[in-house]
Design a protein that fits this description.
single chain; about 400 residues; alpha/beta; 17 helices; about 55% helix
Length: about 400
């Protein structure tokens, strides 16, 4: 009898602890909009409900890849330029996050977006002949987001079929995840699931939900993401773009004025200069003209169309100085620009077109990531898009 009593007491204490942790985390997953929005973490990207909870009327969703992590010490990086502005960006993306992930992410969170606009910063390097790599996609795949996409009634059957087909193909190297995705397909798409499938998915989703909440709370606190303060509001004031242009020019000259590619001198000395001879004319047969990434991008634009989200594509250029050095054909670069322009026109998406900036000095920090002038140009385009037709 004593053993049974001890077990029941232990069980009750465990249950109370779990409930207490659950309740505490639920009350403490709202953060400062700027701090949370600029936090680059897979914990955040996978946490659709927490992203929605941390978006307000001044939040614009900005999707991209590794550029968010680079140049954070620049005055013109959005983390710094908008830190006191009422506009805040919900940044989603890091290395290997591409159109397919972002289509699913958008479909999973759009119902929580008060500002019905989304920005997608395109990297030319996404549009290779292979498109997103299977191992990379598997490592960035969010089951929570995928289920939310399947449950979104605004998304057409055709679009869901595309996302299912592409995901299953890219997840073949991860059989356990693929098996669960096929269960989700039977439960939420085909509606022909067995009792076992439905029970399994129900329990697994509860596990994912609790794991996600605790993980995002712990990770955010460890990274110093600021708590929500209702008294802290930014000012609604258009940045002085001319002033920031002068700052970008000054910082660019100071940090990138000593090399032929107009990138960070530090990057040039450590990474580019040692490989210049080996890389000379190494990309003469390269192309971004044909890629499955274009179909993935079109899927993203269909998600926008079906959910009533107004998209803006940021057409990133290549670093013309470096691409000339490696011999990447100019006509192939132009083909990429024209393909994006055609898709933007087809879906009536806004287009921030920087294809003419291949040779703009200090546009890049390195071979591919935005630099002083580059971030400023992107900041201004996002700000104008976010504020367009907004009543204040």
């Amino acid at each position: 009898m004593k053993k049974v009593t001890a077990f029941l007491i232990a069980l009750a204490l465990f249950a109370a602890t779990v409930c207490g942790v659950h309740s505490f985390v639920d009350r403490n997953t709202r953060f400062d909009p700027h701090s949370f929005g600029s936090w680059i973490s897979q914990y955040k990207f996978f946490a659709g409900n927490e992203i929605k909870a941390n978006m307000n009327k001044d939040t614009i969703l900005v999707l991209g890849s590794s550029e968010f992590r680079h140049g954070t010490k620049m005055t013109t990086h959005p983390v710094n330029l908008f830190q006191d502005n009422s506009l805040n960006m919900m940044m989603v993306g890091a290395g290997y996050y591409q159109s397919l992930f972002h289509a699913t992410e958008l479909a999973s969170i759009e119902d929580g977006m008060k500002k019905r606009k989304a920005v997608l910063i395109l990297s030319p390097q996404w549009f290779t002949k292979t498109g997103v790599l299977a191992p990379a996609y598997a490592s960035r795949f969010s089951e929570d987001n995928f289920i939310a996409m399947l449950q979104n009634k605004k998304i057409s059957r055709e679009t869901k079929e595309y996302l299912l087909s592409r995901s299953k193909k890219l997840l073949k190297g991860d059989p356990k995840t693929l098996e669960r995705v096929e269960k989700y397909e039977r439960v939420f798409f085909d509606k022909k699931a067995s009792f076992y499938d439905r029970s399994y998915v129900s329990l697994y989703r509860k596990f994912l939900k609790e794991k996600r909440k605790i993980s995002i709370y712990t990770a955010a606190r460890m990274k110093g993401v600021s708590s929500y303060d209702p008294d802290k509001t930014g000012t609604h004031r258009t940045p002085d773009w001319e002033y920031y242009d002068q700052v970008a020019e000054k910082e660019g000259k100071a940090k990138a004025g000593g090399n032929p590619f107009y990138v960070s001198d530090r990057v040039y000395e450590k990474k580019l200069k040692p490989q210049m001879e080996a890389k000379k004319d190494s990309e003469v047969n390269s192309s971004y003209a044909v890629s499955p990434e274009y179909d993935d991008l079109e899927c993203f634009l269909r998600v926008c169309e079906e959910t009533g989200i107004k998209p803006m594509l940021v057409l990133m250029p290549v670093n013309g100085y470096w691409y000339d050095h490696v011999g990447f054909p100019k006509e192939e670069r132009q083909a990429y620009y024209e393909n994006i322009r055609a898709l933007a026109e087809k879906y009536q998406a806004e287009l921030a077109d920087f294809g003419q900036d291949e040779y703009t000095r200090y546009f890049f920090l390195d071979k591919v990531h935005l630099g002083w002038k580059g971030w400023l140009a992107v900041d201004e385009s996002i700000y104008r898009f976010a504020e367009e037709n907004e009543n204040r």
